[in-house]
Design goal:
Layout lengths: L3 H5 L3 H12 L15 E3 L2 E3 L20 E3 L7 E2 L14 E5 L7 E2 L12 E5 L18 E6 L10 H4 L5 E5 L18 E5 L19 E5 L18 E5 L24 E3 L20 E3 L21 E3 L20 E3 L7 E2 L12 E3 L7 E2 L12 E3 L20 E3 L21 E3 L9 H6 L7
Parallel strand pairs: 2-3, 3-5, 4-6, 5-7, 7-8, 8-9, 9-10, 10-11, 11-12, 12-13, 13-14, 14-15, 15-16, 16-18, 17-19, 18-20, 20-21, 21-22
Antiparallel strand pairs: 1-2
């Protein structure tokens, strides 16, 4: 037996190489035996973006693989035993990417020989599948399945694989009735339902999926948030996005009868057709991050905001507001406020009153031309302010009491550099992004040099 002293004299890379060879890893410099159609690095085989029309023959590959990428090709079918020699039972997690192809058939034995008791993730989204392949039943450790953007009409296989799934993403565009197979998703944690073709869902549509913590409903024909979500007592993240039938003519949120969903901390209702702030807090009173990006919101009704909502981050980018809504002053816990890409031209005295926790404010890409001197008097913790691509010609004096401000973005705004900004010298090392409109000087350069000579 070699002594410990002799062992430490062996170069480290030799010890690592010996370990990797024993475990079946591919080492840098080893040959990848796939005719330059794939790249092989350690436990990964990447054959993506190679114009492949069929799955590579992996039988000549003698190393362990945890990942195979066949995505973004022109593959039309998956043959039997396509992966039977590729993966090792010593793997902790196996990822197979077959997304963004033209797959319309999968042999029943396509996944035969897959190791058992290994967590497996399969991507089959963006193909031409009409049914979730029964071949997936051969993967005993299947935990995550992505079949979104397929013309599915049959998901019967969920009856057998459903109880094992923790993640499922699929499209329902071609379904005539609500699939009863969802009741088999008894351990699902993350569920994405795309292109639901129905105007409404029954209250028991998500029966037995009460383990869900994250739900996404997108691109649907739904006219309101369905009462079906009311059974999801453990839900924490709720995405209801790109649903073009959701507008203010129909009440967008229906309070759950008898109780509210107290664990939901994140709500995203972006890219719908909302013209007014939705009554989010009736159903999700504990939400801390609320995203309403890309709607048509231009006002907030008085009765939809509770006195002290728990929201810390509010995203209202890309709406149609002409001024900052007065009701935002009730968001006393707010730390980050995103109002970019609206039609706001002024920031008045009371617009941001009471927002004492605010540390980031985004007003970029608005036609802002005036900011009141006392508009930010309560925002004494403000650290980042975005005012790029506005109509401001002067740096607002409202910034002078902001001792915590460390970043100010004025890029694209026609700022005139003159002695009116000398007050910023005391705020250095404040980082100001932008250029003086009358010279090639950056605003930072002007403040550090020329502003010093101002009386």
């Amino acid at each position: 037996m070699k002594s410990f002293t002799s062992l430490i004299q062996i170069p480290l890379f030799v010890l690592v190489a010996s370990f990797c060879m024993a475990e079946g890893f591919l080492l840098p410099g080893d040959v990848c035996p796939f005719n330059q159609k794939c790249t092989c690095t350690f436990n990964r085989i990447d054959c993506s973006y190679r114009y492949l029309t069929e799955v590579m023959n992996f039988t000549s590959y003698n190393q362990r693989a945890d990942y195979v990428g066949l995505n973004h090709n022109f593959i039309t079918s998956i043959q039997s035993n396509s992966f039977s020699t590729l993966f090792s039972a010593s793997s902790r997690r196996i990822l197979i990417r077959l997304d963004y192809n033209r797959i319309d058939s999968v042999d029943v034995d396509a996944f035969a020989g897959m190791p058992s008791n290994v967590t497996v993730v399969v991507y089959l989204n963006d193909n031409n599948l009409k049914t979730i392949p029964p071949a997936l039943e051969k993967i005993s450790g299947l935990s995550s399945l992505y079949v979104q953007n397929n013309p599915l009409t049959n998901i019967d296989v969920l009856t057998t694989i459903g109880p094992a799934l923790s993640v499922l993403s699929l499209s329902l565009k071609n379904f005539q009735t609500w699939p009863t197979q969802f009741q088999n998703l008894t351990h699902i944690v993350h569920l994405t339902l795309d292109e639901i073709p129905f105007k409404n869902l029954s209250s028991d549509a998500l029966k037995n999926v009460d383990s869900l913590t994250s739900l996404t409903i997108s691109n649907s024909e739904l006219e309101h948030v369905p009462e079906a979500i009311c059974v999801l007592k453990d839900m924490q993240l709720f995405y209801f996005i790109k649903n073009k039938k959701l507008n203010q003519d129909r009440k967008p949120l229906v309070p759950c009868p008898g109780y509210v969903l107290n664990y939901v901390s994140f709500v995203d209702m972006s890219e719908n057709e909302l013209s007014a702030f939705p009554n989010v807090f009736d159903t999700f009173p504990s939400v801390k991050r609320l995203q309403l990006i890309g709607n048509k919101i231009h006002y907030i009704e008085a009765d939809v905001i509770p006195h002290h909502p728990m929201v810390e981050r509010l995203y209202l980018d890309g709406n149609r507001m002409k001024r900052i809504p007065g009701k935002l002053t009730q968001f006393s816990a707010l730390k980050q406020l995103f109002l970019s890409n609206n039609d706001i031209s002024t920031v008045e005295d009371c617009d941001l009153a009471g927002l004492r926790q605010l540390d980031q404010l985004y007003l970029n890409n608005n036609p802002v031309e005036y900011v009141s001197k006392t508009a930010l008097v309560d925002a004494h913790l403000l650290q980042r302010l975005e005012l790029g691509n506005t109509n401001l010609r002067k740096i607002p004096e409202a910034l002078s009491p902001l001792t915590k401000l460390s970043y100010l973005n004025l890029t694209g705004s026609p700022i005139e550099c003159d002695c009116s900004m000398k007050f910023l010298r005391s705020a250095l090392p404040l980082d100001v992004q932008g250029t003086c409109t009358s010279s090639s000087q950056t605003i930072n350069e002007y403040i550090a040099s020329s502003a010093g000579s101002c009386p």
